[in-house]
C-alpha cells in the first residue's frame, strides 16, 4: 500500500527545518524592532511627500494670484490713453477682492537730445502697479509701456 501514496516531501511548504529556524532567527517572521523601524521609515517618507505636496499647492495658489494681478495691470494699462486722457500724474484705485492698483504717467524722452526736435507726438511712460496681500505679506506686480499722444500745434503739450 505504500506504493500508492506519493513520496513524502522532506521539506513541506510552510514548515522550516530546525537548522533554517536557527540560522534566520525563529520561525521566519519579522521581529518587533524590524516592524518599528519599517514604520518609522514609512512615516518619515510620508511626512516628506506630504510637505512637498503642501508646498506645491501653496505655490499654485500664489501663481494664480500673480496671474490675476498681471491681467488686471494690463487691463489698467490699456485704459490709459484710450478710455481716459493721457496726462502726467498718479491715479489709484482698487477692487473689492483686495487687489489695489496705482497708475503713474510720466513724460518720456528716450534720449536727452529729443527735446531739441519738434516732433508731432509726445511720449509717456505709463506704469501700473497692482498689489495685494498674499500669504502674509504684500505682493506687487508692475507693468510698463510707452504710449504716444498727439502733441498738438507747436510740438509738446
What's the number of structural domains?
A: 1
Please mark out the parts with pLDDT under 50 across 5 or more consecutive residues, or reply none. none
User: Structural class, please?
Assistant: alpha+beta
Average pLDDT level = 83
Major sheet: size, sense and barrel closure? 4 strands, antiparallel
Gyration radius, in Å: 37 Å
Report on the architecture of this protein.
With 157 residues, the protein is of the alpha+beta class. 35% of the residues lie in helices and 27% in strands. The chain has two helices and four strands; from the N terminus they run H-H-E-E-E-E. The chain has helices at 18-24, 32-79, and strands at 89-94, 100-107, 121-134, 137-150. It has a four-stranded antiparallel sheet. A hairpin with a 5-residue loop joins strand 1 and strand 2. The chain starts with 17 loop residues before the first helix and ends in a 7-residue tail after the last strand. The model has no long low-confidence stretch (mean pLDDT 83).
Protein topology:
Layout lengths: L17 H7 L7 H48 L9 E6 L5 E8 L13 E14 L2 E14 L7
Antiparallel strand pairs: 1-2, 2-3, 3-4
